Amino acid sequence: MRIDHVVPRAEPLEHASHNRRLHFRSPAEDLRIEVTRKSLHLLILFCIPLLDISPTLPIVCLLAGLLVYSVSELLRHHGITVPVIAPLTERAARRRDGNRFVLGPVTLALGAMLALLIFDPLQAKIAILALGIGDSFSSLIGKSFGRIPMPLSDGKSVEGSLFCFATVLLAVFLLTGRFIPACIIALTTALVEFWPTKDWDNVLIPLAAGVVASLVI
Prior knowledge:
Number of helices: 10
Largest sheet: none
Structural class: mainly alpha
């Protein structure tokens, strides 16, 4: 009895090329993703005016947002799309996120909540400024204009770190009117942001900035 071997039909070149393009991201696409991510990241700054209204209000808002996001992300991984939240998550996801639970918003909310729970209102505001402004603008400037790589930083740039320092310095100085403490806090933020801690810099930056603020202000 003769057994016929079925040879799989080769995938058309055009279709294979199309599939490869689905997994390729140009520098412009990476920058668009980073702009989306950091635009959402900046929303954490709304905790500052909410803190002026009530000490518990920003914590309640963060807990509610964290719960809604976590449920949306779990549903997304089971093929159920939550309007607005799931599309934004997919639009802002980076290569390293792949098909995993996107952790960035969770650590962002956690970092802000820890700052609000641990520090006094002024120190908490400084910590949230460092988290929202320093991390966001350092990443955007680094992606857009970074040319000089920082050693041991997993691809971060000198330009991004300098802009992180400058923006936090300006923000803290405008908030407190104290230049030297603002310099120390900005330097601390830039040093913590420099280390390749992935999404956990969202927790480390506000904690470091808040601790230093409690010592120098």
